[in-house]
Each structure stands twice: as structure tokens, then as C-alpha cells.
Design a protein that fits this description.
Structural class: alpha/beta
CATH topology of the largest domain: Rossmann fold
CATH class of the largest domain: Alpha Beta
Strand order of the largest sheet: 3-4-2-5-1-6-7-8-13
Number of domains: 2
Helix content: 25-40%
Number of helices: 11
Shape: globular
Length: about 325
């Protein structure tokens, strides 16, 4: 789905206050249902540490690069870390080990990206996925997008927050972007990964106040390659496509046209053929994100460039201190 613009405003005509007021009771019901699920579910302790990377809002905040970093970093330190995902958009219910032959239709886009850095399991039931991972040697489980999922006991909960939009209008879905009451989400958080658009971005006082006394680790996404030369037609079906387009422009790319699709959009042949046609008319090259690239029909990938990014932590030492007890626990198991 595409996030409605009014979710990002607290006042003014863009905020659509009358619509927000009508939707707010539904938000209260949604929040109560989330709270009840968290309170009444008995979580499974899989017997190994669980690092949860989640968010409080709907849409993309940068979770996948954070999970990739954790998976890669722990395995470099000799820790047998496995990723665990529900495989959003995929048909596999699992528990299923993601392998190179899988497609986004099978397991979703995010697990395919994470599999580059270590073993990844897709499971609709995270408890069953965790059991299977441990049975296959996992000493640490990195749970992708699980902050509102109560099925596992979590050792470390990291909440990824987009510094530009924060928590939007502060309302719970469908009146706003929140998945649950904000205070409830923060009370279960050990640290916030605050994802900034640029290293020098100034965090708003409103967001600082909302985060209160939670440990905050500023971060940003940095490109792994130089911006391609020549005119570019950029397209993306992620939580906030504008973030991708803006990052290209900041890197000096000549972006002459953009096209945004819904988050996790499943591209069809006719979509890509249309993009190629427009790009040809503009004498521009097509470029997209890694997450979008794995969702493209394979026959069309050759003519599309990819803009890969990695997360950079401004205070990596704080994150390392949070991870240290987990690393020590894993080594003794």
C-alpha cells in the first residue's frame, strides 16, 4: 500500500483533520488489538539470544540494511547467526530455508537480500521458524520486522525510526502510520536506530522529545557504488520511494524521471516494458533499488541498474556494547 500523505502532518489542510478524526476510533481498536495480542501470547524462549529489528510505523524505515549489518557482523565474529523473516509477499509459509533458487514470489524480497549475508529462514509462525533455525545450528536469531510479534522472547529489541518523518501524525493506523501506541512500542525498545537521510541532518526537537530517554543510535544509508553517469529514470516500490530518488540526486545522479509503486509491488512484464519504453524515449537508463531488483521478472533485469546501499552507524560503539553480551552468550552455547 501507499501511505497517505495526511499521515505525515499534524496541522494545516494537508493533515485532513476531519478524516483523521473519523478514522481515530478505528485506530483505538487496532491499538487495543495489538496490545491484547502482546499481553496474552506466551512467547517461546528458543534457547538462544534473539535480536529483534522492527519499527513502530507502517512503511519502510531501513530495517533490512540493519538486519544485513547484524547478520554479516556477527558471522564475521564467528557467531552462527541466522535471519528470521515472515517472508512478506511470498507464498512459502515455512519454516523454509531461503536458497539461491528461490524468487521473491516464493519468499518475499527482503529474505533474498538477507540471504547474501548468512542463513535465513522464512516462517509465518516465528516460533516454529526459531525452533527450526536452532535445530540447524543457529546460536543467535536476528528477527526481521518483529517488534509487534509476541511469539518469541527477545534479548535485544532495536526500533528503526525514519528521522525525516518520525512517527508522522502520532495516530495509530488507519488514522496514522503507527502500528500500536507509541509509548507501548518505546517501552519494549532497548535502543532506537535513528535513520537520517544525510550525516548532517538535524533531528527535530519534537522527535527528540518523543524518543525521551531511549538510547538513540543515529545512522544513515550510504551508497556502495558511485552514481551512474548519464540521464536516469529511477523507479521504486518501497515504503518511501522519494528517499531513493533523493539519495540518487544527492549523489550527483542526473535523474530525469521517477516512478513510484506500492511497497513490495510485484512487477509484471507490462510494467517493465512500459518503463523501458519511457526510458528509451528519454534516452535514459533505468535504475532501481536492490529490493525492487529481486522482484523484477528475470528476463528484464539485464537492462536495469541497481543502486545498493549499506547502513553506517554514527556511534557504532554503542551498538557494539549492546551486542557484546549476546556475542558472549552465543559463544558459551
Amino acid at each position: 500500500m501507499r501511505a497517505p500523505e495526511f499521515w505525515n502532518y499534524t496541522s494545516g489542510p494537508e493533515a485532513k483533520i476531519s478524516l483523521r478524526t473519523v478514522l481515530r476510533p478505528l485506530g483505538w481498536v487496532y491499538a487495543k488489538a495489538a496490545a491484547r495480542r502482546l499481553q496474552t501470547t506466551e512467547p517461546l524462549d528458543p534457547g538462544v539470544p534473539v535480536i529483534c529489528v522492527g519499527n513502530a510505523t507502517l512503511g519502510g524505515t531501513g530495517k533490512t540494511p540493519v538486519v544485513s549489518y547484524l547478520l554479516q557482523s556477527l558471522r564475521r565474529l564467528g557467531v552462527e547467526a541466522h535471519g528470521l523473516s515472515r517472508g512478506y509477499g511470498g507464498r512459502e509459509k515455512g519454516p523454509t530455508a531461503v536458497d539461491p533458487d528461490h524468487t521473491a514470489i516464493d519468499v518475499g524480497d527482503e529474505p533474498l537480500l538477507l540471504r547474501r549475508y548468512g542463513p535465513v529462514w522464512v516462517a509465518a509462525g516465528r516460533d516454529e521458524g526459531a525452533r527450526t533455525a536452532v535445530a540447524n545450528g543457529a546460536k543467535v536469531i536476528i528477527m526481521d520486522d518483529g517488534h509487534q510479534n509476541p511469539s518469541l522472547t527477545k534479548t535485544l529489541s532495536l526500533l528503526v525510526v525514519d528521522a525525516e518523518v518520525g512517527f508522522g501524525n502520532g495516530c495509530v493506523f488507519p488514522a496514522g502510520p503507527l502500528r500500536e501506541d507509541l509509548n507501548a512500542a518505546l517501552n519494549r525498545t532497548d535502543a532506537v536506530i535513528l535513520m537520517k537521510p544525510t550525516p548532517d541532518y538535524k533531528i527535530s526537537e519534537t522527535l527528540r522529545e518523543q524518543l525521551g530517554g531511549v538510547i538513540v543510535i543515529p545512522a544513515y544509508l550510504a551508497p556502495r557504488i558511485a552514481a551512474p553517469k548519464g540521464p536516469l529514470f529511477a523507479f521504486a516500490g518501497i515504503g518511501r520511494p522519494a528517499k531513493f530518488f533523493d539519495s540518487l540526486k544527492r549523489a550527483g545522479a542526473n535523474v530525469v524521471e521517477t516512478e513510484d509503486f506500492a511497497d513490495h509491488y510485484k512487477y509484471k512484464d507490462e510494467d517493465i516494458e512500459s518503463l523501458f519504453l519511457i526510458a528509451s524515449e528519454m534516452e535514459a537508463g533505468l535504475i532501481t533499488t536492490e529490493k525492487d531488483y529481486v522482484r523484477l521478472p528475470k528476463g528484464y533485469r539485464k537492462g536495469v541498474q541497481v543502486w545498493p546501499v549499506s547502513v553506517v552507524f554514527e556511534n557504532e560503539l554503542t551498538l557494539r556494547r549492546l551486542l557484546h553480551p549476546i556475542i558472549e552468550m552465543a559463544k558459551w552455547r
